[in-house]
From TrEMBL, chain A:
Chief location: nucleus
Occurrences of domain ORC5 lid (ranges): 228-283
Keywords of this entry: DNA replication, Nucleus
Species name: Macrolepiota fuliginosa MF-IS2
BP-aspect Gene Ontology terms: DNA replication initiation
GO cellular component terms, semicolon-separated: nuclear origin of replication recognition complex
Subcellular location: Nucleus
Stated name of the protein: Origin recognition complex subunit 5
Pfam families on file: ORC5_C, ORC5_lid
Region (Disordered): 387-411
N-terminal signal peptide: none
Molecular function per GO: DNA replication origin binding
UniProtKB/TrEMBL annotation, chain B:
Biased composition regions of type Basic and acidic residues, renumbered to the chain: 51-65
UniProt source species: Macrolepiota fuliginosa MF-IS2
Name of protein: Origin recognition complex subunit 4
SUPFAM superfamilies: P-loop containing nucleoside triphosphate hydrolases
Lineage: Eukaryota, Fungi, Dikarya, Basidiomycota, Agaricomycotina
Similarity comment: family membership: Belongs to the ORC4 family.
């Protein structure tokens, strides 16, 4: 994208001035909010400064831009850096390996440096920028010190730039082994800058659309530029409080735009040059589409679905403008399809499971959430009583200290499979008896259920669920003594939904009410 | 143009210009020479160009001649002499300087736009919006460039005659020591001790530069040579690089050297290094023997051990033992050359780290670099760093004078400012690291623009804040609503005694609060004043963002059997910091919610 991002002018000036004149040997760029945007800006600076021959300086700058996430070993780190420095220069192949130690890496750097010096009349400067530098700490933490001292170690004109979401003090080696970097803090973008940037991209997008054969190409007609600015303002009004990332906003904007202009495009003849809606139409459009932006935000930002699918699912009817014309005052009107298919049900695939499997899942959720001691109270029945015992409300003990956090917030506990089977039996006895075929051979109450529960099918269902990662096995698979233990892996919402399908009053069966 | 320039700079011009001209305009000639002297030519050409072009900022007048002299010798013996290569890069070519935008051409664009409509950032930083007349812009650019160059290579700031007594002594001691190694072929060892930023490397570089004859310099660093094996390999490599080529050059023919060397037992100096010229290293078993060979080389050797204390942590201190033993065993007068071992460290008890046998071989000489300490020195250094002479090639002498006057006046105003003096005093008292001062100055100088062409106290304090007392991060942070909710929920979690929380805990706190807030159907101006809704998925992605910028840090190792909602985290933000962030956003509902956590 060739348009620049507004709000970064100061940053661009500072960094490019430094790179082009006398950069500090070690620079740390810190941006907690929008790292990707910053990285794209830096890349732009790099291409601008290295690609431009008109710069009146006798300086030949070679950049290496690497991502620390991909350099999880020292060799990879060395190879990536040297490789990208080499690419920019001559195309001779270098047979030597420079990746086995810091020494050889530095020899490689010096070699490249002197090579470039020979080839060009200008001075050579290496600039190495490392994205997500905090990732270095995880895998190659011992390389932070030499990297930060690379300038003095290699004795050539080289600058290291760390770009990270975390602060230097979080990754700084102990004992002050690294020199302090020159800090650059990126200022967060403000809303007006984002609006400006996003709307200025329209020209570029429409140019691209002209040449592309996408079905949305028509939506980016150059004449819609003004409308797009208003549209972006609307998107930002709704979404900016929730997202400050310019790429995310652009993603949402791209998903909604085809639907947004569809009424206009369909109302005007396709070959007319100017598609410029009146002020009134624009306001109406914005009002109509405002609510759908929220649903776009909720499904697109967490990537519950993708932009293309969302746009297809939420396409408005073509005559929506006329439809709502009479009822414009009733805010109830929503464009057709809004919200449909946006949020996936949490139990999307689960409703098709067999009935017994669902029982097992609910039982496992109960076993993972309730304390074992409560089982007797929750499920214990005397021979005579049909009703289960009342749950005794525990009086709050006077014990000092923090209140206990409900288990369903802390995550599932592992349980032995026997316990889960017992709970399953209790659940089946209460909720499943009526649906069974009559079996006169069982005379003792509960005998039928016992038979059901001890079927091999139950064990195989458990194993199948474990393979589907709806149950998690916590004991090692090769242990043979004692019952295997599992952990429930379904969320509370899923468990409640399943229980509802099975008519189990799950809320009553949980020790701590959600 | 050159008639107009003042005398001092005219001299530099006449010095640099012919040089660059020859370098640029007669490639044919150099190429012709290259054929004869093959590989050796290009590095030395580089050297010839550099020191001379550097000269203008390196103060003295008698240097050119001396540099030429050393260069003449370099051509014969010395190859990629690291300190020279490092010495300040691109001397700005006079031609380039003459143009009006030496720093960056596109910088003028933002400037002009900024002048018509001052950008919001500029105004909010509170700089005085003094518009610089456009004729002075080149001067400003040149001044910026000069200052940045001075700060990049601050050696020129420390003139020998202005050094403090201690500094001078250190310099003298080291120089004497190295000289005696080179001239009288002594074996010497010493330790250069001083805190970070006190100028250890500077002293050493100066001394190395002033030596009458360039020695073989071997640089090792404890930061990368974690084991003795690595260090010795590197010694072998550097020796091969430096001696191998020098020998080659003396012979002037590659092939012959090899043949001769291999079967000529009558060479006056048995030199095992020569055999493996290039990058081939001796077999590992020969490495320890290598060190004892050093004194027999054709030139004296200086071994520089950066982070000396780390070498002392190697098992059995074998490398140090070998080196210091060789130093001690150095006998003069048998055709042997000297060997000097210079250790550099910031650790005061380094000598105590040495084993007895190593310590007894160490000379015990400790040279201290103290750097500058008094506020007065810091102030004068600041002043010096900020007013280097700008090259008067911009064209108009009057213009330059006008600019210089204005610049100096503003500078003296700045340095008399109470606040600025206090800041420098603080710095001198707290840090003692000159690099810090340089970073602050870079920060301030880079931000000069025609809108605010002169350094102001506010800019200076901004720079101090950014580089020294780092802003507590969250002054500048601007978090979206879901992240704020999570932060507040985490504070609530702490208040209720749970320092470690999961996402589910935060979410249920948020949900309860949202329910309570929406329950009361109060409306102001037609809008609800309750909290905005936020889906769980959105909150979860905000949570992930917070963990990725380590505002929430994992309290327990995450496992793949643990759903991400239940992984335990801790917050790194204090209550006060969260309050400041929330207050900055000005959302009343959030503020109220946070206040409930008291």
């Amino acid at each position: 994208m060739d348009t620049s991002i507004f709000g970064y002018e100061d940053f661009v000036q500072e960094l490019s001035t430094l790179i082009l004149t006398y950069p500090p040997p070690f620079v740390y760029i810190y941006d907690p909010i929008a790292l990707r945007t910053t990285i794209s800006v830096i890349n732009k600076i790099i291409t601008d400064t290295s690609g431009d021959d008109e710069i009146p300086s006798n300086l030949d700058i070679s950049f290496a831009n690497i991502d620390a996430a991909t350099c999880f070993s020292q060799r990879l780190l060395f190879d990536t850096i040297l490789g990208s420095l080499l690419d920019l220069g001559s195309d001779e192949d270098v047979t030597e390996r420079w990746n086995d130690s810091w020494d050889s890496f530095i020899h490689g750097l010096r070699y490249l440096h002197s090579k470039k010096r020979e080839n060009s009349t200008r001075d050579v400067r290496f600039v190495i920028s490392i994205e997500q530098a905090h990732r270095l700490k995880e895998k190659v933490s011992e390389s932070i010190i030499p990297l930060s001292r690379l300038n003095e170690l290699s004795q050539i004109d080289i600058t290291i730039i760390f770009i990270s979401q975390t602060q230097w003090q979080d990754m700084k080696p102990i004992l002050g082994a690294s020199p302090e970097p020159y800090y650059i803090d990126v200022k967060p973008l403000i809303k007006s800058d984002i609006i400006k940037t996003l709307s200025s991209r329209f020209v570029f997008i429409s140019q691209q659309a002209l040449t592309s054969s996408s079905k949305y190409a028509l939506c980016y007609d150059p004449s819609l530029n003004q409308l797009y600015t208003h549209y972006i303002t609307m998107i930002c009004d709704v979404c900016f409080p929730f997202i400050h990332d310019i790429d995310e906003l652009a993603y949402i904007a791209a998903a909604r735009w085809p639907g947004f202009v569809k009424p206009i495009l369909s109302s005007s003849p396709p070959d007319s040059d100017t598609v410029f809606p009146s002020e009134d139409t624009r306001l109406r459009l914005i009002r109509l589409f405002n609510p759908t932006v929220t649903s776009a935000l909720e499904s697109l930002h967490p990537r519950l679905t993708n932009a293309a699918d969302w746009a297809a699912a939420n396409e408005p009817e073509t005559n929506i403008l006329e439809q709502s014309f009479g009822q414009i005052h009733s805010p109830v009107t929503k464009p057709g399809g809004a919200g449909a298919g946006t949020t996936q049900q949490p139990d999307a695939g689960l409703s098709s499971l067999p009935r017994m499997t669902k029982f097992i899942l609910v039982a496992s959720y109960i076993a993972s959430t309730n304390p074992p001691k409560s089982d007797l109270r929750m499920f214990g029945r005397g021979l005579d009583e049909k009703k289960r015992r009342r749950r005794v409300m525990k009086t709050q003990s006077k014990a000092k200290g923090p209140s206990k956090v409900p288990q369903h917030l802390l995550g599932p506990n592992p349980f032995p499979i026997d316990r889960m089977i017992a709970i399953l039996g209790a659940l089946l006895e209460e909720n499943d008896v009526d649906s069974r075929p009559p079996a006169p051979e069982f005379t003792i109450p509960g005998e039928y259920t016992d038979m059901e529960v001890s079927r091999v099918a139950i064990s195989s269902a458990v194993m199948e669920l474990a393979s589907m990662h709806l149950l998690l096995r916590t004991s090692p698979p090769d242990r043979i003594d004692g019952p295997p233990s599992f952990k429930s892996a379904i969320s509370q919402d899923t468990a409640l939904a399943l229980a509802k399908q099975l008519d189990i009053p799950l809320n009553d069966l949980l020790w701590e009410t959600p | 143009m050159e008639n107009a320039v003042p005398k001092a700079t005219a001299q530099t011009v006449s010095e640099t210009k012919p040089d660059t001209e020859t370098a640029a305009s007669s490639p044919a000639k150099t190429r012709g020479r290259k054929k004869q002297t093959d590989i050796q030519e290009s590095p030395s050409k580089r050297q010839s160009k550099r020191p001379k072009a550097d000269q203008p900022d390196l103060t003295s007048d008698e240097k050119p001649s001396r540099v030429k002299r050393t260069y003449a010798k370099n051509l014969v013996v010395e190859v990629p002499l690291p300190p020279r290569i490092r010495s300040p890069p691109p001397p700005p070519q006079p031609v380039a300087e003459a143009r009006d935008t030496p720093i960056t051409p596109r910088k003028s664009k933002p400037k002009t736009t900024a002048r018509t409509a001052p950008s919001p950032v500029k105004t909010q930083s509170g700089l005085p919006l003094k518009l610089l007349p456009s004729r002075l812009h080149p001067c400003l650019n040149a001044q910026k460039r000069e200052i940045l160059r001075t700060l990049y290579d601050p050696a020129s700031l420390f003139d020998a005659d202005e050094d403090t007594g201690v500094e001078k002594t250190a310099n003298k001691q080291l120089e004497d020591l190295l000289k005696s190694t080179i001239v009288r072929s002594e074996g010497n060892s010493c330790l250069l001790l001083g805190p970070r930023g006190s100028g250890k490397s500077k002293i050493l570089d100066q001394c190395l530069k002033s030596l009458p004859e360039p020695p073989i310099i071997i640089r090792l660093s404890g930061w990368i040579h974690h084991t003795d094996r690595l260090a010795m390999r590197e010694i072998a490599y550097q020796l091969g690089q430096q001696t191998g080529k020098s020998f080659l050059q003396a012979e002037d023919d590659e092939e012959d050297v090899f043949v001769e060397q291999d079967d000529n037992p009558f060479l006056d100096q048995p030199n095992p290094e020569v055999v493996e010229t290039g990058l081939a290293l001796p077999p590992p078993s020969h490495l320890p023997a290598l060190i004892s060979v050093i004194p027999t080389l054709s030139r004296p050797t200086v071994v520089i051990l950066d982070a000396f204390d780390l070498f002392a942590l190697h098992p059995r201190q074998a490398l140090l033992y070998c080196l210091l033993d060789t130093v001690q065993g150095c006998r003069t007068g048998r055709g042997n050359k000297g060997l000097a071992v210079v250790g550099m460290t910031a650790r005061i008890d380094t000598i105590n780290l040495l084993e007895k046998r190593v310590k007894s071989r160490f000379s015990g000489r400790v040279i201290r670099a103290t750097g500058i300490s008094t506020t007065h020195q810091w102030l004068s250094l600041t002043k010096k760093a900020l007013c280097p002479e700008i090259p008067s090639l911009i064209g108009d002498e009057d213009l330059v004078n006008e600019w210089n006057d204005a610049w100096k006046q503003h500078l003296s105003e700045l340095l008399e400012d109470r606040g600025v003096v206090d800041m420098i005093k603080d710095m001198a008292g707290l840090a003692k690291d000159l690099k810090l001062l340089f970073r602050i100055l870079i920060y301030a100088v880079v931000r000069l623009s025609p809108d605010s062409a002169f350094l102001s106290p506010s800019l200076f304090s901004q720079a101090t804040l950014s580089q020294r007392s780092r802003p507590s991060l969250y002054d500048s942070i601007d978090l979206p609503y879901p992240a704020l909710c999570l932060l507040i929920a985490s504070i609530h979690s702490i208040t209720s005694g749970h320092d470690i929380f999961t996402f589910e805990m935060l979410f249920s706190t948020f949900r309860n609060q949202l329910r309570a807030s929406v329950a009361a159907p109060v409306q102001v101006n037609g809008g609800s004043i309750g909290m905005a809704r936020c889906s769980k998925a959105t909150l979860l992605s905000a949570f992930e963002h917070l963990t990725s910028c380590q505002i929430f840090v994992a309290a327990a190792a995450s496992s793949n059997t643990m759903a991400k909602e239940f992984t335990r985290y801790r917050t790194t933000l204090e209550r006060g910091e969260v309050r400041r962030i929330v207050e900055k956003t000005g959302q009343v509902t959030l503020k109220k919610w946070l206040n409930k956590a008291e």
